[in-house]
Predict the 3D structure of the following.
Amino acid sequence: MGHSQSEKKSNHERILRTAAKRLREKGLEAVAIADVMKEVGLTVGGFYKHFDSRDDLVVEALRAASWQRPGQPADAGEPSVSLAGFIDEYLSEKHRDRPGSGCLIGALAGDVARSNKRIRALATEKVRCALELIAGLLPDKQNDAGSAGNAVNGRRESARKRATLVFSALVGAIALSRAVSDPSLSDEILQSVRELLKSQGNS
């Protein structure tokens, strides 16, 4: 029984990893149960031992998916990523060319906007986490006006707005770089936004 449960857990995790990768590569509507199970090496009938429906698989796969850098906070014991490092990783050719292991929002923002409430709620939490991460990486800008409490609140609000701008630019740039057919234009988009964001972050 123990071995059976362990095997089921292992298969479940493999299905989730495979589904999350395929969803980011192909979109929310383009991934079929049969394709996922074939890649994992299991039968379609075995799918229903793990999930009640395809929708349940999609939600769980997206929830479980890590960004695997970019966007992934450093593990304990690892040096924290800098803002410049975060931008470089997000707007890299590697991230552009491997959406299956990259940012969920960067890969699926358009699909998510047209999806159901469960998926949009999940994406909302992913976006909130991304904004918090980026806000924590931004250099502190002092605000001398008002009381100390107001200054702290002002800096927090400013960091949140700047983080929103940075993340919006990152997601837009990675999506555009994947959408265009001209490789040189794709590279230009990544490089230009990279340079502008990094210069703004240090100003």
In short: The chain has ten helices and no strands.
